[in-house]
Specification:
By secondary structure, the protein is an alpha/beta fold. The protein contains 14 helices and eleven strands.
């Protein structure tokens, strides 16, 4: 394809796949797409091991790494904030609410011990260290979400000839990213899983393209609810140079999701993917569950804490929920959840990541043929 994304990344099909699972990343890249590993949950040491594995299993195909450096976070401007210091800021009311909620479903809340110097979640300093690790490997793209990448990140990419991408959920965000110098905009509509804005993909993509055209020519990847090649073709008809996908890979045999969550995805409708602050403190689309209902609508809810404090609560809680569900606690299934977009309503089974890429290609080609037939003489 002649998409600028293909030229920039050295790929044959402009389908980018964000995943926390190295197996998905490698499989998608091998199949002709472009896998992007979500690195935020890793330490520099664990990321090094993951990238070594990808290098050995990607057959020389290109891939990328995604980090999370939020601009707006409750600890902004503070130095050397650790997980331990944040734990001390969590009100007892929120701890009691969490423990009581899990107890109703016969789940014992187990807290994980952390080192005294373990950095806070979404720590910018750690993210830069993760990028330094990434650059020891043949990555072709680095991406950031929840704000303009720090100048250091953009300069690191430019110095090494690595493309820098940034996710945006509003026209105003896109203009700031273009001014900052990013190479690719991932324009993510509200249908997307995880942190997202309020504007739909079909509206946001052309709005951003129209706005940035007056400033600088930056390729746009459409994101949000994209589960098929036909949707991909539609986004490219609107002016996107390709697509960035996430939720579709959760229903693959390689993904990091549990069997229980996969079953819940297959049973879910698009309306079951809701925006909630209950997991991270910022609006993030995830599968509706007892957990989201309790935090968002419960009469006794103390309200979600700002990022990253809510993540301090939810990490131990969801680890406990998943362990209980896997051990056979049927009641715990009601709390099982994960980030997923509204495209979950299109999931009807579990497939291999490679077969999903091939389905995208086939559906994309059929959509183009359909459009060509409409204008043929």
């Amino acid at each position: 394809m002649k998409s600028p994304i293909c030229a920039m990344l050295g790929i044959e099909f402009p389908l980018l796949a964000f995943s926390h699972c190295r197996d998905v990343v490698a499989a998608v890249s091998r199949a002709g797409g472009f896998g992007v590993l979500g690195a935020t949950a890793h330490s520099p040491d664990s990321l090094e091991q993951e990238l070594k594995w990808i290098d050995a299993h990607v057959d020389g195909k290109p891939y990328g790494v995604d980090v999370l450096i939020p601009e707006n976070i409750s600890t902004a401007g503070e130095k050397d904030v650790t997980w331990k210091s944040l734990e001390a800021r969590v009100p007892q009311t929120h701890r009691d609410f969490t423990r009581g909620l899990l107890k109703k479903y016969d789940i014992e809340l187990a807290t994980a011990s952390v080192a005294d110097n373990e950095p806070q979640p979404f720590d910018g300093k750690t993210a830069i260290e993760l990028l330094e690790v990434s650059f020891r490997h043949p990555v072709r793209l680095i991406a950031n979400a929840l704000g303009v990448p720090p100048r250091e990140m953009i300069e690191m990419g430019r110095k090494r000839g690595v493309v820098v991408a940034a996710l945006v959920g509003a026209k105003e965000h896109a203009l700031r990213q273009v001014a900052a110098g990013v190479d690719i905009l991932v324009v993510q509509g509200t249908e997307a899983g995880g942190h997202c804005g309020e504007v739909s993909t079909m509206v946001l993509v052309p709005e951003v393209i129209q706005a940035i055209r007056k400033v600088r020519d930056v390729p746009v990847l459409a994101a949000g609810g994209i589960m098929t090649g036909r949707q991909m073709a539609a986004c490219m008809a609107m002016g996107a140079a390709g697509v960035w996908t996430g939720s579709v890979w959760l229903a693959t045999v390689e993904s990091e999701t549990s069997e229980i969550f996969r079953e819940k995805m297959i049973a879910a409708s698009s309306r079951d993917a809701i925006r909630s602050r209950g997991r991270t403190g910022k609006p993030a689309r995830q599968l509706r569950s007892v957990w989201t209902d309790a935090w968002d609508r419960g009469p006794d809810s103390p309200g979600a804490l700002p990022m990253p404090l809510q993540s301090i609560i939810s990490r131990d809680a969801f680890n406990s929920i998943d362990r209980a569900a896997a051990a056979g606690n049927a009641k715990a299934r009601d709390l099982v959840s994960y980030f997923v977009g509204q495209g979950v309503g299109l999931i009807d089974g579990v497939k291999s990541a490679g077969s999903v890429v091939q389905e995208f290609k086939k559906d994309f080609a059929e959509a183009i043929e359909h459009m060509n037939a409409l204008v043929a003489e």
